[in-house]
Design brief:
With 400 residues, the chain is of the alpha/beta class. It folds into two domains: 6-181, Flavin prenyltransferase-like (Rossmann fold); 189-397, 3-Layer(aba) Sandwich (Rossmann fold), CATH 3.40.50. 34% of the residues lie in helices and 24% in strands. Strand 20 (366-370) and strand 21 (373-376) form a beta hairpin. Helix 1 packs across helix 9, helix 5 packs across helix 8 and helix 10 crosses helix 14. The radius of gyration is 27 Å and the shape is elongated. It starts with 5 loop residues before the first strand and ends with a helix. Bound molecules: cytidine-5'-triphosphate. The site of cytidine-5'-triphosphate has 15 residues, from helix 12 and strand 17.
């Protein structure tokens, strides 16, 4: 649920700081990467060593540490995060956030950030109920800060009332909920094909191609992390399953078509697989042997076009159908023809000539061809192509 999400956890001083250790574990169990900033007060209750051991990352404590600034400027700490979580948030840090005070690393990061912030307050009940804290909280809420808790109960100071830090599980659930509700493709189903297909010649031989599956897998990962329920129908590859994606493994074009049809309905379908255009008409049931008649003559027959089949008008047609055009010359011109011939909405045209190094490489140069014209994307990594495509899909489906 939190795959690829990066949380900057700020631990401020208070007896509840010990629960931050549990929180790190809960967030990581959900797939998040957690980096911690510990205030001076916080370090009275938990050590940088325990936070570092649980987060698997360095813990940042000092605004004026030359080493920390050289390795990772304090501004970079927030740039690298998707969400800042302050847990526990003391009355003091809430006051600093309200008034823009920046006198240590935690408060400076909170003032310098343009990312969303979630606070989990924890303090004595009188401090919580004090007009100063309540006014600060009202200001922070009005600024869009997300607040979880505090809970009501027995307090370490012997009093009873609101002021207890929310349970780590509840804070982790609130973080997941935050990403879920801010995920642009939440509630959408995406279907992606990826990889090559293997077309059998006999039980041990097949016809294949050089597709690595990297682009299709990266697209499935990006769609899932944008909140879409994602089904990836993949031909044989050496890649591991992208996190949070339902993967259906197939071998041949026929199996790929059947798996895609079974995955419908979908809101968007992206066909990134390099499907073999032809298969051997009659694959041999037994292994072909060398004999005096010489090499076998194989009759080829055309495979079904999966993209064209699913893009054809029907009730089950996804509202956005996207194909790839792997070309070695006249890239955009061929893509335009393909757009019409396969009646899809967008074609992502890419140059797969040996000189471009797309098939086995990490980068891709895309031209997005649609009825509205051509968008030339700069050369970027396949992961960046995937993220940009996911954002464009969210934009297009958002106006449905
Ligand atoms: N495609 C498909 N099923 C096929 C062949 C292609 O779904 N049997 C899809 C690919 O996944 C891609 C698009 O169609 O999204 C275009 O693939 P490409 O290989 O570039 O085009 P072809 O149709 O094979 O045309 P040509 O080989 O003549 O360029």
């Amino acid at each position: 649920m939190l795959h690829e999400k990066r949380i900057l956890l700020i631990v401020s001083g208070g007896i509840a700081a010990y629960k931050s250790l549990e929180l790190v574990r809960r967030l990581r169990e959900r797939g998040a990467a957690v980096r911690c900033v510990l205030t001076r007060g916080g370090s009275q209750f938990v050590t940088p060593l325990s936070l570092s051991a649980l987060s698997g990352d360095k813990v940042y404590t000092d605004l004026f540490s030359l080493t920390d600034e050289a390795e990772m400027g304090h501004i970079q700490l927030s740039r690298d995060a998707d969400l800042l979580v302050v847990a526990p948030a003391t009355a003091d840090i809430l006051a600093k956030m309200t008034h823009g005070q920046a006198d240590d690393l935690a408060s400076t990061v909170l003032l310098a950030t343009d990312k969303e912030v979630m606070v989990a307050p924890a303090m004595n009940v009188r401090m919580w109920e004090h007009a100063a804290t309540q006014n600060n909280l009202a200001t922070l809420l009005a600024r869009g800060v997300h607040v979880i808790g505090p809970e009501e109960g027995d307090m370490a100071c012997g009093e009873y009332g609101p002021g207890r830090l929310s349970e780590p599980d509840d804070i982790a659930a609130a973080v997941s909920e935050f990403f879920q509700s801010s995920s642009p493709l939440s509630g959408r189903h995406a279907l992606v094909t990826s990889g090559p297909t293997h077309e059998p010649i006999d039980p041990v031989r097949y016809i294949a191609n050089r597709s690595s599956g990297r682009q299709g897998h990266a697209i499935a990962a990006a769609l899932a992390s944008s909140g879409a329920k994602t089904t990836l129908v993949s031909g044989p590859t050496n890649l591991s399953d992208p996190p949070g994606v339902d993967v259906v493994r197939v071998e041949s074009a026929h199996e790929m078509l059947a798996a895609c049809e079974a995955a419908l309905p979908a809101d968007v379908a992206i066909f990134a697989a390099a499907v073999a255009d032809w298969r051997v008409a009659q694959a041999a049931e037994e292994k072909l042997k060398k004999n005096s008649a010489g090499p076998p003559v194989m009759e080829m027959t055309e495979n079904p076009d999966i993209l064209a089949t699913l893009a054809a008008p029907s009730n089950a047609r996804p509202s956005l159908v996207i194909g790839f055009a792997a070309e070695t010359e006249k890239v955009v011109a061929h893509a335009r023809t393909k757009l019409e011939r396969k009646s899809c909405d967008w074609i992502l045209a890419n140059d797969v000539s040996a000189a471009a190094g797309t098939f086995d490489g990490n980068d891709n140069t895309i031209h997005l061809v649609s009825a509205d014209g051509v968008e030339d994307w700069p050369r970027m990594s396949k992961a960046e192509v995937a993220n940009r495509l996911a954002a464009r899909i969210a934009e297009a489906l958002g106006t449905d």
